[in-house]
Amino acid sequence: MTDPYLPPAHRAARVVLAAALILTTYLLITAFIDHRVGPGLIAAAEHVIRWLRSTVSSNSDGS
Amino acid sequence: METLIKWALILFWYWLWTVISVAVFLYVSVPIGMVVGTVGVVGGLSVVVYGLVMVLSGRVSPDVLTPAGVAAGRLPGRVDPVHVRRDRAWPNYFTAQVYLDVKAITLGTAGLVLPLWTRSAQPLRTRTVRKVFYGWPAIAIVVFALAGLTAGATAALLVATAVIAVVTAVAWTLGLATAAVLRAVDRAWQFVFRATASCPRCYHVTRLPAYHCPGPHPPHDRVAGDDLHRDLRPGRLGVLWRRCACGHRLPTTVLRAAHGLEARCPICTAILHPRAGVVTDVRVPVFGATSSGKTHLIVSAVIHLLDAGETVAVLIDEHSRRRAADFRSFVDRDRGVPKTDAATMPVAMTLQLAGSRPALLHLFDAAGEALADPAVSSGYAYLDHARTLIFVLDPFSVPAVHDRFAAQHTAVFAEANPAGTDPEASYQATVGRLRISGVPTETQRLAVVLTKRDLLARLPLDRETDGAISGTTEPATADVRDWLLRQGLDNLVLSAERDFAEVRYFAVSSLERSASGAIAPVRWLLSTDRVPLAAPPPRPTPPIPAAPSINVESR
To answer: ipTM, 2 decimals?
Structure first.
């Protein structure tokens, strides 16, 4: 279903929001590619996997 | 023994399967789960992006707050009781619709993600615990996928909401600041120029007229008053402009609205004068006894202003134009103007004054007997809103004058048609009504105008003591005051000077069209409102007749 009518100011405001979202996405992707966010996330994931493995191996050693 | 062995085998099998399943989980489910989880995260992000695109591009219709919803009270915020309800206009996007859009995106995302969880959990309800026990590493992969999807969607929603919140906060900050500045400019202008809008029908005075939308409204909108914007100030319905329900764009301040929109009274919806609310509004009630010369005074002042030309004053409404034409025809035929009808509510004669400070001058004329009747005059609300008043005093109704001259000068008295009520009684009738209504008369100014000066001059007054009144030059205010005191009206004079902030005395003849005539008290009252009357344009000098040619030869 499409809007029957919205005032131009509403449409303009939505365009502004879309532009802000696109800009934010661009900044996040740029930050990720520039190794500012990406390595942090990857390191966190590796840390979780290591913790899981160590937990499982310690349990199996104990058994 | 056999049972024992059987149970031992079962326990061993469960132990073995636990070890195997944990190993499968760690070395099969987790790696696969990482992959499908990542795919799920991307899927979740995509779901939110899809929702954003659909809502922000208008391809799906979320809950839209329309002007009808605004009028029905769906827009939060306080509404002044005088405005009845919010106007039928589109709200500013960031005051309402942005929340509805975010809500639509969130609900749309939840509507896609949550059913996946419930649909995935559906088979588990029909499986036995044993099957779940054997299949949990496989189930974990599905959980990884769904968790990734949910996490991706949640993260995207949080980021999108945060971005929208920041943009909304910036819009609110800018909007509030701009609205505050625009409102302050409006209010400061009205304060400096004493600009208000007064209704000619119900006498209501307001700083904020209602404005009629000139857009394409259906007839039932006009009948129901849905085309009226009662609070056009910058606010939730628009900061610089607002969009009426009909789609027409309207300016948001009184200063701008006054130049293109038709102003209406917010109480009775009568049409107000053009530029009401942005030019100085001077309301001058004229009161006094019946036949004291109120109407003559007003007519004479109005005609004086009109004769000065359009650069000084113009009549602004049809009622005033018609009345002025009627009066002028009476004056031109040298006939007295008809008696003011006491049965109808007074409607002001309104002039738009040009000059350095444009103003609307409203002269209210009510019948003397109506003013004397408290039940009737209580409905004359224009008396309550005036900063200046004119009290008309008929010298022929002063007992001392009557007693001294009436018997010998019956012709003059017959022509004067003296007011039947004692001046002090007619003064107290109106001023008493003002004080009972709580009107702070001590902040108002009063012009006491002695009328019929031309007839008074025909009486054999004492030239030494009354020369200023009966002479040809304009008497000073002190001369008129002294004359009133000598006629025994000291009580009236003292009451007026006690009741009002400033009192000035005039003696005029309504037949006099010069600056010392009926225009004199009006000019003074206007000057106290800082409204100088524009000078009339210079009259064209008559052409100098050509000098007769001299025939030198004939000499």
So the answer is: 0.75
